[in-house]
Amino acid sequence: MCGIVGYVGHKDAESVLTVGLQKLEYRGYDSAGIALLLPSGIIVRKKAGKIRELISSLEEDPLPKSTIGIAHTRWATHGGVCDVNAHPHVSQDGLFAVVHNGIIDNFSALKEVLEEEGYEFRSETDTEVISNLLERNYKLLGDLKGAVLKTVRELKGSFALAVLFREDDDLVIGVRKDSPLVVGLGEGENIIASDPVAILPHTKRVVYMEDEEVVFVRRNSVDFYDFEGNPIQKEVKILDYNEEDAEKGPYPHFMLKEIYEQPRVLAVNLDMYVRDNRPVLLKDLNLRRLLLNRSRVVIEAAGTSYHAGLVGKYLLETYAGVPVEVEYSSEFSHRRLVADSKTLVVAISQSGETADTIDGLRHAKKHGLDVLAIVNRPESTIARESDYVIYTNAGIEVGVASTKAYIAQVQVLTLLALELAHVKGLITDDELEYMISHMKSLPRIVEKVLSLDAHVEHIAGKIFRSTNAMFLGRGINYPTALEGALKLKEVSYMHAIGYAAGEMKHGPLALVDDNLPVIVVNPKSSVYELTVSSTHEVASRGGRVISVITEGDRRMAEISEYKIHIPDVPEIFTPIVSIVPLQLLAYYVAILRGVDPDKPRNLAKSVTVR
Ligand code: M6R
Fold first, then answer.
1. Which of 440, 457, 492 is the last residue of a domain?
2. Is 2 one of the annotated active-site residues of the chain?
């Protein structure tokens, strides 16, 4: 959370930095700020609110031009949301300005020492400690590199930093520890940012920083060091994204754009992972070794990725006969791990930077367990630290609500379960090929579901004034209900809860009255009849049933106030098809309630705090 960017070059730094901030806004949007280095010193402008507040302020009252600066978009951790707590934070005598993504765990102790030495603090943030510590150490040592290294070694916690030093107008300093930072290499200009999306408009040549690394970025050079000051050689990578991937294009919001990209994402993964109606993931002997002969799989993930993990449990158990547990990363990583070497840990993450999931991965590695990552973003921390990575190839997902990344995760888990089942002799060649031939029609089927857009918008119009909503599903679509509820609550602020349909009668049924929209996910499946019974229990108590059902299903239609018909697909693919109308429903409810679905309050795309 929080996005940082730093630039030194020949362009107008304010413009480079504000465009960069807009690309990073998904990482946090409580407040934003910019610092430029001028011959007279460091000048700062910062504002509570979204980045457009900062930009309006810069338009109304322009800053002098500069070709070097740093900027920040904030997701508050320490200190309330106000101009003073916004970054950058300048040291007491104005020598350093700092922007920071992460949390300094020992900031109180450091602050006490600095206060005893006469430093006065203007903000409530942990970050101001960093700028003052840099200044104190620089005055102590009289050497910039020494001061930077001493400072980063004194800090405990997670921090990606971009730093301006008043005495050098050809230098931006970057630091990475447990928060991402990427360096973009240009011609006569260089840029650092939390995410390559902010670098893409300038260059595709990047260097990914590792933990405990410092970079001194100048117009014509970039020098990397470890925290001991030893120089490091780094590999230059070429970004595999297009700038349009990070643009809204004709869509009003990223969320809608990304929902509409789902057929393409499904097609990309079919192209990547299927040959002649057979999945080819396990052709890689390293992955095969990792998966075969496991007596247990533990999936750890957060939010939407956790829901994909729940679908994965159903798939791996049902088809491949592997016992699977699914854990919230935030719970998994702080508990005694009872497992032997036959346990495989699977970390699922869109960003690959979720702190809880990284902790889970490290917890597993510390216990000597193998970790398989299912990740969307290449070069992310989770991708780099795992024993094996399966990429989900959904492209850049900007909307805070995860949509296309979820479908890709479920698709990859489906392919993996089917291929593993086949390798273990649990399904025949014909069965595998039959399934994959159906999977190949999913891009077209999801396209068809998207054509229900106006119908779903109409239903959204009927429920958007409700204060609560309930989502029900069973079996492989229980996670679909959970995911539908998460989507609705996070983007529209309507309280929504997902239940296993069969659990209704054990308590939640008491919530049902004629004001409660109950969204029942019940396409044709092995638990269809049971879910029909649960729906009757709701309908007979006046609940307003909105059903996601298979085309031609009259029985569910009769007990539903509104129906969303999806094409008939084998049960194994129903989670992929039935989540799409629920994503659209959440989107339109948000719009009708006047909420920007791309930037729901209090949230950020990449949750890099614990
Ligand atoms: O990047 P990750 O998949 O690790 O992120 C996990 C969650 O933070 C994420 O899915 C979150 O719940 C989304 N906002 C859901 O739409």
1. 440
2. yes
